[in-house]
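Fold this complex.
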Amino acid sequence: MNARRLAARLITANEAWTLLALIILMAFFTIKAPGKFLTLTDLGFIATNSATLLVLAVGQTFVILTAGIDLSVGLVLVLSGVVAGEYYQHNGGATAGLGTVWIGVLIGLATGAGWGAMQGFLVAKAKVPPLIATLGGLGAAEGLSYLITGGADLRAVPAKLESSVGFGALGGVRWMIILGFAIALVFGLILAYTQFGRYTYAIGSNPEAARRAGINVDRHLMKVYALQGLLAGAAGVMSLGYFETTGIASHSTDNLTVITAVVLGGASLFGGRGSMLGTVIGLFIPAMLATGLVIIAVNQFWQYVLVGAVLVAAVYLDQVRRQLRSRA
Amino acid sequence: MSELPDVPALLEARGLVKRFGNVQALSDASFTVYRGEVVALIGDNGAGKSTLVKVLSGVIRPDGGEIVINGDSVHLSSPTDARKYGIETVYQDLALAPDLDAAANLYLGRELYLIPALKVLNRGEMRRRAVTAFGALGIQLPDVSASVGTLSGGQRQSIAVARAVAFASKVIFMDEPTAALGVVQRKRVLDTIRRVRDQGVSVVLISHNMPEVLAVADRIEVLRLGRRVARYTASETSIEELVGAMTGALDSTAGNGA
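Structure:
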């Protein structure tokens, strides 16, 4: 009994496993290529490139904790960037003033939040399964993005947005990195220490128990999907500043990258279990792997094979954990 | 035959009606709870016990009839409404969140806050008070911070009971609270029921276990085909009489009627 409990505890400490995996990876590459892997430049490069994905993963963590899923994130990012970009195009383009830049940012955020709220309504009130509601949302957001732009990416990005969010830095650290990690930190604290976070876990763990405890489950679910949309909007604005284009065709697999990060980070697809720290670690494992493989001169496409295998293993372990628990 | 207490009822259901499609779950069902008593609600499968409990705890709304608390007619449109009137329920399926720990489950929906404006949880205080609440009921948990999904059935049951006891000021409904328990835990839950009653909170016990009902209840009300068919004082009745009332074999002589 005690041995089984100990075994169950070890398997349940998913975050510990993920962190261990990341450390082993880093140690491996550092030993294989001393002095080449994980220089500050590398780290900065990885973190900057992952910033928008990190923001999407923060929202996805909340969604998956409720036992939901949001496939639309990459294209909601695009749609938000397109709507903001369209506004910039008609209001000064590259030479737009600071006021215009801010209005565009708010428009991007509002677009994402609105889209997310709509998907939340479909999931919570219309009872459309999240997989389908957000798959439909993904397709519609992509279609609208092409319709608004006429099929060609918008490139009239205000210089003031590029020089700040895109390439600006504070004390040597890029704003992209600061924004990404600040958002992860703030929402990580909200998840762990506030009522909003607690209800998110409770609803994913047992929606009926949450309902009987007086929690308005439908309303909370709508808020969670709206939050994911809002964060996709934020990522859209960041992406617009960094890449200087709306990049409609470059975000179709963001959803898979982000879901992989959350699951590698120890979250259960059945809801109720996971953490923001886990998600952050989970996001950087594939990124480290890609950089490391390049440095030790192994074809970097092995990254996808390895991550795929680890992902399946992570979900398998989660199944084992649930079986152990139901037998207890 | 039994004598009903000569005091006003604490909670009263009058002529409740509830239909689910073609099924008449409650037809003119009445039920009475007096202050500081353990009253058992018994009946055969499908008699309407669970439906009656759900109506009285605000989970489902009746199609007709009246709910009276302390003489006032009330509408219970949600479990939160029922809780405002001091009514708590321990459900048969317990309704706990398996991934949250015992303290989080105890306070689910009623969290204590460190910074109320930001809804920042006071986890330390909730944990401390939870340990006190469990202690008061003689519940020993090996690890208060373990998710309740890793605990035994009896421990989970204890948490569900403790949650109801901690917040109920008038009535606790317990739907088959001992069904999944071993002998020792069963005795502990029955002791808890008596202790709660002695503190002045009424307990409505829904159970199939007749010896248990006779051992712990002060009064017994019998439901059959969605209607109250008999009421007894526990000390003056027998298992045979109760079974007779439940099955309808004693129709002409049952209790003092509805």
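The first strand of chain A starts at residue 169 and ends at 170.
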